[in-house]
TrEMBL record:
Annotated ANK repeat ranges: 71-93, 193-225
SMART domains: ANK (SM00248)
Name of this chain's protein: Ankyrin repeat family protein
Organism in which the protein naturally occurs: Populus tomentosa
Pfam families for this protein: Ank, Ank_2
Keywords: ANK repeat
InterPro entries per the UniProt record, alphabetical: Ankyrin_rpt
PROSITE patterns recorded: ANK_REP_REGION, ANK_REPEAT
Amino acid sequence: MDPVLFKAAEAGNIGPFESYQTCSLNQLLTPDENTILHVHLSNQSSEPEATDFVDKLLERCPPLLFQANKRGETPLHLAARYGHSNMVKVLIDSAKALPADPESGITKAKMMLRMTNGERDTALHEAARNSRSHVVEILTKEDPEFSYPANVHGETPLYIAAYIDDYSWGQEREKVIDEILTNCISVDYGGPNGRTALHAAIEVGDHETARKLLEKEKTLTKTTDENGWSPLHYAAYYLILPNRIVEVLLECDASAAYIAETEKKRTALHIAAIRGLVDVMKEIVSRCPDCCELVDNRGWNALHYAVASKDSKVFKECMEIPELARLHTEKNDKGNTPFHLIAALSQSWGSVILNDSYGLTKWQIYGLNKRKLRVNDIFEGDFAGMQVINPL
């Protein structure tokens, strides 16, 4: 593309293009095969107030509307990415003026809205990724019945919006999520590796979005990723600071506490225990006390996992929770109680066993494992046959 024409396209100056035949305007390309319309849309630093340049270009050369660059991006992709809502309206209105596809009956406007780039992103993907709420509102209201599918990375627009953890977007991000949930008749919640938008919201610690998603689709609490992790597993792993997400999830569906992952069979309670998140454990136990009975594929219960956190404070706090304290005599597949693991994992915990019995008798603490080893045997260094594996 001639530098003079490139600069004219950037500036929105129609003059230099008036001498060109209308049929050749779409042949003016950059090395990336950007048309003059691509160049104009991608070089507007703010929302353009005037749309005259785009109106005149499309009037003279309608094919520019659907022409993609090397990355498969149409002008609508760029207008959505940069948040040029006025331009988005112009592009859609121009497409509406064209006849519908005779075979499918789909209007040109909907065809354009559903077009994907090289990574199978639609314009809605672009708008969601960049938190362009006004654009998202326009796009979803124009084609509410379309369920925007995942791109090559497995991301749907809703997942992308939920996963944004840059809160500098503030209300814009929230509005994007609201517009999709409100306007789309059939919402696709999917994300990569079997995750959903609910997994994403939990990972970034957004309990408000989690609540909105569950109000729309309650079954998301049972949807697990490819490793069998439910949204509650994610909450048990990621929530370092106090947060209402666990409460929100269990209020919606308490049975989520009983979901075990695919391979190691750990529940969210196990994950919270090894992460040392006692507040999360308390919330789960208070709503689903019998989930404490669940063990992983090696017979480890939640108290075993609290020991594996290697934090004596976590173990002490767990022993103050009656439902968890009762697990102190429960043995894993090798016959080891949580106290056996304490002796094996940390010499410094020996004082916990010897000096603080938690009101338990020595027999209760010093039961034998399958190798006929007492806790004291292990603490003193007799590890014969004792194999302790960190659950994570």
